[in-house]
Amino acid sequence: MRVLLGIIGAVIVLGIFASVLRTLVIPRPTPAGFTGFVQRSVSRPFRFMADRLPGVEAKDRVLAPVAPVSIVITLLGWLVSFMVGYGLLEAAVSGLGVHDALYEAGSSLFTLGFASSRRAGLTAIDFCAAATGPIVVGLQIGYLPTLYNAYQRRETEVTLLQTRAGAPPWGPQILARYAQVDLLDDIGDLFRGWERWCAVVSETHTTYPVLIHFRSPKADRNWLIALLAVLDAAALRLAFNPSQPQARTRLALRAGFVCLRDIADIRGIPYDADPRPEDPVRLGYEDFLRGVERMRTYGYPMERTAEEAWPHFRGWRVNYETLAYRLAQDIDAVPAPWSGPRRTTLSVWSPLTPVDRRPAG
Fold first, then answer.
1. N-terminal to C-terminal alpha carbon distance within the chain
2. Which among 220, 201, 62, 74 has a CA at the least distance from the CA of 137?
3. Any idea what the Cα angle at residue 106 is, between residues 18 and 8, rounded to 5°?
């Protein structure tokens, strides 16, 4: 019996150490394991409440604490698991019962020392437990600034996009806004900036998957919807303006769907890595025409008709639409146009283009 307790205790301690290292120390994507289980468990009651609320703002308020709470619960889960693991190890090497062994392990893990023993076997385990608690808490404290710096870098570009596309962002709205303020000659700078943004998000959101669930400060903003809008703007640009420079636009598109695929890999979402341009998309042709009409209303120049551009646009969108729709549903992103369905029925939020008012005379 003691041998079995020792084996179980060692497996728990080593497994949780591996989880801590993968989450807080190793700077590369690793399987979620324990942290993924905690995040899924924490999110369920919040989702249950959010699904029963009628408005987007109300849902956003309920879901905003999910990621921070999951971080706290993960830390508590690690500490409790270490206490159980060390307690079982102490029960295995001594004559203590499981209850007394857990009592002593907890005393050591939290560096309280009120239940320490002078027996050599227990003392060694007590020392290990006493070192483990501060190390895990210290690593978690050091992890938070890295997490919030990555969040801030992500949200800066999302906020900047609001001035260019409104909120929530929408691909046709980006091109309409650029045409309205005569900035189409500089649109390559937008795509170059978002190519770099995609690289940063791909690295940070796979290394720290909890960032995927961190929501923007306002309900009408969302990192995924912003990315989808930029990708749609790039696809529309390529579809309607084949004579314009394409390098930056194509690179932004490539960076965008690579970013989505990297995030899908870490979350275990399947996808077609090499779709054909003729494959169907879920965006309907009528919805596409409404976006084209928005662009035309604000003077966006088009070298192709909507009918001619549609197969080209669809051939680009097939690379990222499925993953964008799946992630938008998973994180309950704001229901912007062209962003797919959500778990519950919500009215689509369309961005408003500012009226270009000028003084009379």
1. 93
2. 74
3. 50
d(C-alpha 55, C-alpha 60), whole Å: 9
pLDDT tens-digit map of 84-141? 998 888 888 876 777 788 888 888 887 665 555 555 556 788 888 888 888 999 999 9
Contact by Cβ (8 Å): 171, 291? yes
Identify the burial level of 30 via C-beta atoms within 10 angstroms of its C-beta, where 0-12 means exposed, 13-18 middle and 19 or more buried: middle
Name the pTM for this structure: 0.90
- Taking the CA atoms of residue 320, residue 324, residue 325 and residue 328 in that order, the dihedral angle to the nearest 10 degrees is 180
**Distance from C-alpha of 140 to C-alpha of 24, rounded to nearest angstrom:** 7
203, HSE (Cβ side, Cα atoms, 13 Å): 11
Residue corresponding to tokens 């690295």? 203
CA–CA–CA angle 325, 173, 271 (5° rounding): 20
The token pair that represents 191 in the structure block: 């795509």
Question: 359: helix, coil or strand?
Answer: coil
Residue 1 pLDDT:
72
Torsion on CA atoms 229, 230, 233, 239, rounded to nearest 10 = -120
Using alpha carbons only, give the angle 53, 56, 60 rounded to the nearest 5 degrees.
85
Geometric angle at alpha carbon 79, from 74 and 82, rounded to 5° = 125
Percentage of residues in the chain with pLDDT exceeding 70? 94
What's the token pair of residue 65?
A: 């604490």
**If you count them, how many residues does the chain have?**
361
Environment class of 33 (CB within 10 Å of its CB; exposed 0-12, middle 13-18, buried 19+): middle
- Model confidence pLDDT, tens digit, residues 72-88: 999 999 999 999 998 88
